[in-house]
Description:
The structure is a single chain. The chain has helices at about 5-15, 25-30, 65-75, 90-100, 110-120, 155-160, and strands spanning about 50-55, 60, 80-85, 105-110, 125-130, 145-150, 165-175, 180-185, 190-200. It is an alpha/beta fold. The strands form 2 sheets. The chain has a 7-stranded mixed sheet with strand order 5-4-3-6-7-8-9. Strands 1-2 form a two-stranded antiparallel sheet. Helix 5 links the parallel strand 4 and strand 5.
Amino acid sequence: MVNFTNLRKRMIKDLRNRDITDKKVLNSMSKVPRENFILKEFKSHAYDDSALPLLEDQTISQPYTVAFMLQVLELKQGLDVLEVGTGSGYNAALISEIVKPGKVFTFEINKKVYDFGKSNLKNYKNVKVIHGNGSKGVKNRKFDRIIITAACHEIPKNLIKQLRDPGVLVLPVGYPVQTMVKIIKKKGKIETENWGSFVFVPLR
Ligand code: SAH
């Protein structure tokens, strides 16, 4: 039997030894059992620092990339968050732990992946899983934080409109390698920062 608790502790230690310093991110990753978001056949690899296959040729990002994005996103208790690309639901579960009682809206475009993510997230009461195209956003709602977990050709303008002021949007932009882009809305202005190179499955 694999001891997931020990593997999870080791993952946290490895993340700390790199550049993950945000305590809220580390605490949430210590709490959420990543093995519950992984397909049966890959569960024993749940804590490897690698991307793992999901259904329908999609992938769940490696723990370091997940932690890095959440750190750049500057999450806090009480914030409302929009995620585009539910996938396994692991990232949404991590966000949910940090922001509750804030709300998480997460969109998944692929029906089979949506069913998988939704069932993995059933115990996370502040998460709403929606089947559909997330780059259009949610009508009549704004968010403090937005995260896109699939590679974008360009920055979706609709989603900048969905950001509150102040607000932060984090997304991977470009092909075949993506730059992690952080967009900050503050006092009516938009600032853009680049946070290094990553590889994601494409946004549709
Ligand atoms: N955050 C996920 C990993 C996401 S992989 C996790 O924690 O496991 C990227 C996902 O984005 C894929 O499942 C893909 O189907 C989905 N996707 C791609 N384009 C999308 C869009 N426009 N709207 C919603 N989901 C999208």
